[in-house]
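Recap from last week: sequence in, structure out.
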Amino acid sequence: MTITEPPRIVTSRLGYEDSHTLERYLATGGYEGLRKALTMTPEQVAAEVDAASLLGRGGAGFPAGRKWSMLRKAPTTYLVVNGDESEPATFKDHMLVERDPHQLVEGVVIAAYALGVAQAFIYLRGEFALGLERVQAALNDAYDHGAVGRGIFGSDFSVDVVVHPGAGAYICGEETALIESLEGKRGFPRIKPPYFPAVIGLYGEPTVVNNVETLSNLPWIVRNGGSAFAALGEGRSAGTRLFALSGHVRNPGVYEIEMVKTTFRDLIYAPVLGAGIPGGRDLKAIIPGGVSAPWFGPEHLDLPLGQDEVAAAGSMLGSGSVVVMDDSTCAVRAAWRVTRFFWRESCGQCTPCREGSGWLEKILRRIEDGAGREDDLDLLMDACDNISPGVAWPPQQTTICVLGPSIPSSIASAIRMFRDEFLLHVKEGGCPHG
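Predicted structure tokens:
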């Protein structure tokens, strides 16, 4: 296997114990990107981000530059940072807010300058106690340093940034539910189209929502140029990306790797990355992009970690979480736990998601507990088809947001890949894995 050695764009300071402090940030080139941005026009900064082909690092992978270009011109506009990282086994943004909060603050101010925004909000998951503390401390230090507030670094540009803790709802990772929460309302996703946040968003004004990792790339892009970022990776999948690797691997953790040039095999088995599966066990399945993504089998190990490549194979990179399951894993139990999470986190606004998730969870639990019937497999797929017609990927929408149609992914994957295992549960009256 060949591991490339790209520049560490968002993890360059993580080797320092004091990486979260202003002193360390300034000693390692901090706020130089912002100072350079202020010598450029906002249009020039936006053009560099567009040239970088920076895809959103939150889930959908929408190009950041294109999202910025959709912002409706209005006297008042907002920038919102989505730091409500709630997908199970996804913890890359959590690491960034704890270990390098000034990088995020600098990225927010650069984005605000490019967009002409005077007010920005950093919305962080409430359970990130240390992350909230460090981002707020970094923001206070940035105000004192002149990097945030009025007349930033002696320029004519001013922006205020507010840190807002969420209450811990998974649904608030969806950008319109996040906006509802930020406005003090229940986190219900909004119907779209016709109106997207870039047209009518926070407080009814045009709003750009980007996630933590996306904005953390901006200081490097401005300092080095969008073309330098685009030269990394391949095709639409430019630059590096953080992957949260967990499950049955010797070295779970967060890794910054070059997109497309690295494969799932590299990520899982390379000694400098995952270092393989403990005990020499065989790989059973991979969840490639957060638990809402369809599973892959061992035959996909040599698939490049690229947005289009993974999509063409029938799944997604999504939240950047890669979960490894070895041959000791119970596929039924894994699918049940994922489904139980979605059932508990459904906002309840749409019937297919609210009701269907509960039905699926009950059937899976019945099979796992040894009371299942053989026709439960057809019942599961029928219920999945009602939530997402065709049970295909990308899923068909029957709900306001994508949470509902994502629920069938793990169930359909488990049944299609490990049907015999479900039948063993039924035949033997319990889980053969113990």
